[in-house]
Design a protein that fits this description.
The protein is α/β, with parallel strands linked by helices and 226 residues long. The protein has one domain (6-219): Rossmann fold. Helix content is 50%, strand content 17%. It has helices spanning 17-28, 35-48, 56-63, 93-102, 106-122, 132-136, 150-163, 171-187, 209-225, and strands at 6-10, 31-34, 68-73, 76-81, 84-85, 125-129, 142-147, 200-203. Helix 1 (17-28) packs across helix 9 (209-225), helix 2 (35-48) packs across helix 4 and helix 3 (56-63) packs parallel to helix 5 (106-122).
Length: 226
């Protein structure tokens, strides 16, 4: 493999980015960075401190006082917020909405992006998010944009919640949450969800997770041969 490999995987909520990025990172032997988890940690802290996740002033002050560390345990990414492992606590519907809200605040994004770029300078990496290929790593060697119908994305997220034992939310509520996040992520003024001009778009609606992952892996390996 070449000396530097940075793979950007962007797309809306429920498109399969995180699961696919993990498979890609494992097969290619490079680090996976779940950038969304970082915004979820910020949202968790805001909610715990009773700060409105849309309050830019409050968020700007808070984000300067928190410490987010990315670590890996047995190959799995762990998120530490002020030295406390919050990996499992940030995967609730409330935190999902909060993460979308705090991600719209430039003050929050700049701090998180700085950390993401620092990590990418130290190691080959697969990053998934909303603006990796357009803002975080605009010069990434590989860029992909995953899409899927909102019906399919809602169903995936609903099944994911049920598998985690979260049964107090309906499929329709999950769909509404995703619609809200789509509008919020695409409509924000600073670094919105957007397909990079040089990204390869993959519609995952009728494809399996493994099929999408192999498309990306094959594309990367083919380009590395050139």
């Amino acid at each position: 493999m070449q000396e530097k490999i940075r793979i950007a995987v962007d797309g809306p909520a429920g498109a399969g980015k995180s699961t696919i990025a993990k498979i890609v990172s494992k097969e290619l032997g490079i680090v996976y960075l779940d950038t969304g988890a970082m915004y979820r940690a910020v949202a968790l802290k805001a909610i715990e401190d009773e700060i409105d996740t849309k309050d830019r002033t409050g968020l700007a002050q808070m984000v300067e006082q928190i410490n987010i560390i990315i670590d890996y345990l047995d190959g799995e990414q762990r998120i530490y917020l002020n030295d406390v492992d919050v990996t499992n606590r940030i995967r609730t519907p409330e935190i999902s909405i909060g993460a979308s809200n705090v991600a719209a605040a430039p003050e929050v994004r700049l701090k998180m992006v700085d950390l993401q770029r620092t990590i990418s300078k130290k190691t080959n990496v697969v990053m998934d998010g909303r603006d990796i290929g357009t803002f975080v790593l605009p010069d990434a060697e590989f860029k992909f944009f995953l899409t899927a119908s909102i019906e399919e994305r809602a169903l995936r997220r609903y099944k994911e919640q049920l598998a985690k034992g979260i049964c107090n939310i309906s499929l329709e509520e999950v769909r509404k949450d995703i619609e809200y996040r789509d509008k919020n992520d695409s409509g924000r003024d600073f670094a919105p969800l957007k397909k990079a001009a040089d990204a390869i778009e993959i519609d995952t609606t009728s494809l399996s997770i493994e099929e999408v992952a192999q498309k990306i892996i094959s594309s990367v390996k083919e380009k590395l041969k050139q």
